[in-house]
Amino acid sequence: QDVQKESEPHVYLSKEEVKEKIESYNSSVTDKLKMTLNANGIYTGFIKVQMELCRPITVQSSQSQGRCAHSNNETAFYLPDGCVNTLHISSTNTVREVIEALLKKFFVADNPAKFALYKRCHKEDQVYTCKLSDREHPLYLRLVAGPRTEMLSFVLREHETGEVMWEAFTIPELQNFLRILDKEENEQLQILKKRYAAYRDKLEEALSGVWKPG
């Protein structure tokens, strides 16, 4: 179960505490994605972000995989489910900067303001998610939680506004969405036609057996 959770208060660590936590973190890492503490107190490391996007994204590319619709040099397509991206960031990078870096890595042309970063953690039999504010620091959260993704993971989603704010999209984006919807509608229509044709054949076969002249 995915349960919304309020943001937890930020606890500031001293330089010595940061050093100790990084040493403990690196000793527990199993994928070689360790953190590095610099002389100025800033540390760098890696975070993994799972992409859970319901709507298509627009990329500045003419070559993209998946279901897509083209418009000039931009392509709208759905990211595959469970897509995970790894970013190398520093302790000074904010949530907003992480979102921008993710979109840049995928050549996404959409406005970063359309997206939000969530943290997901497992406690007992429940999964909790919490939307992060733009000023929070994901690498700090990763350090405090440790390297285990079941303790903490990051998820990129669209902003949950209740209704889609279509005015936030550009004309090419909207045109691409319409092409995708038309394609999906036609595909579903063909599936329904085949299903009902099969039902009709079975009914007609059954009726011909019942009403055979004696």
TrEMBL record:
Family matches, as InterPro entries: RA_dom (IPR000159), RASSF1-6 (IPR033614), SARAH_dom (IPR011524), Ubiquitin-like_domsf (IPR029071)
GO cellular component term of the entry, any: microtubule
Keyword line: Coiled coil, Cytoplasm, Cytoskeleton, Metal-binding, Microtubule, Phosphoprotein, Zinc, Zinc-finger
GO molecular function: zinc ion binding
Positions in coiled-coil regions: 182-209
Keyword NAD (UniProt): no
Xref: SUPFAM superfamilies: Ubiquitin-like
Pfam families per record: Nore1-SARAH, RA
Compartments reported by the entry: Cytoplasm, Cytoskeleton
Keyword Transport in annotation: no
Chain segments annotated as transmembrane: none
Identification of the protein by name: RASF3 protein
Organism this protein belongs to: Psilopogon haemacephalus (coppersmith barbet)
Gene: Rassf3
